[in-house]
Amino acid sequence: MNCLPSTCGDLPHVTQCIDAFLDVFSWRWNLEETFTKTGSLHLMQYVASKESQRNAIDPFYRTYLFNRVTWFAAQRGDLDTVWWLVEEYLPHEFLTKVVNGAAAGGHLDILQWLYENNYDRAEWGGIEMCRALTNGHSEVVEWLKNHAPPRSESLTKVMQAAGRAGNVNIIWWLYSDNDIDAEEALWSAQLELKWVSAKWNFRKLRVGRPQRLIGQRLLDLRN
Fold this sequence. Notes:
14 helices; Serine Threonine Protein Phosphatase 5, Tetratricopeptide repeat; 3 domains; Ankyrin_rpt-contain_sf; mainly alpha; SecEffector_AnkRepeat
């Protein structure tokens, strides 16, 4: 693979000479460093094309780099890069990190693409809803609720995240439909100073007793 397109401009032979001059590869480069510093898919593809010329990469290290760079790409909303990594670079690797990155970044288009094309390669219903809640991506939260609801072992963490985010709709859904103790949300809301959410929990669900640190504030809200 060339550094520069060989057909670039009216003098392709000049481009090829420049490319040959530039084609000095540093073995310290890797996909994660390349993408986080430049965001360039073309440069990342170039680095990947040189992997066959170096000593074999430890498979665990390769998976680590793949998870890191796919997380960054999904979080940034770079579907082209995600597609190349998932479909071309490592087409059989597990994609849970990609799902979490897309949810954290609020990129519903990437989540939908993964769901429709690579559902079996990821573990859905985990903490991706927590990522979306934490960053205030309500559209993604609602989509996950309808398409990939959290599994039973993740419900308490989601309740805590909903409390921290002050998302009373998800708190109520978890409480009423999944029978999750809303006190988890109350304490999380208090710790994050989400007073409106805490007040809603205290009044609507009647859970918990305010502790000294925040009791007076909650009592004020109740009045």
